[in-house]
Amino acid sequence: MEKVKVAVFPIPGMVSFPTTTVPLHVFEPRYRSMIKDCVKNKIKIGVCHTEEMISEGPKNQDKAKILNSNQSTFKPQEIFSAGLCTIDEVTPDGRFRVSVNMDARYKLDEKIQEIPYTTYYCTEYSDESDSEEKSNAELREAIDNFLFKYSEEYDDKEFYKYIQSSKWKDLSNIDYSFKIFEKIKLEPYLAQVALESKSLNDRLKIMADALDLKY
Fold first, then answer.
1. Residue 215: its pLDDT value, please?
2. Distance in angstroms (rounded) separating the CA atoms of residues 208 and 186
3. What is the pTM assigned to this prediction?
4. Most exposed residue of 127, 168, 192, 214, measured as fewest CB within 10 angstroms of its CB?
């Protein structure tokens, strides 16, 4: 399988899925360098949940020190989503507001570099073949019914309109099984379990069960 170079951006609690866009506020020097390099050279950025802290950053810093020193370092989860990045804004003090457009899931393979930021060769992480068409359709209908309740409860007219639109209804089952996790946020542990699942049917069950517990 072809290996892809990915710059890894580990953020505690951040589980991202393919088909979604992840906005980031980037202020650490190493990650500002990463953004510049990745945009210039079209290198994918992997935004991933973390396994553990490797080293703790400095404490009691003022804004100037935060912008000029790296903070805590974390070990990334092995499975994550990645995609190309666009810079939306550069603030007067040099911070970046960016969007990372996730195109697929990847698995860490071989570390390329660690300084100033970490990059790996990664392999794409794909679903196994699916034979649960009827179950997928039923789960998708059940989840949409929950979403209608959600939008009514919070009087979210835009969300209600979106899930009634052809843009939402025409999503393939696999894209739907990822996109739904952008709309409804689960605990990072459970979201990571869903991300690592190689079955779209299992991902839909995880979401349906979580919504069933809530409602």
1. 36
2. 11
3. 0.87
4. 214
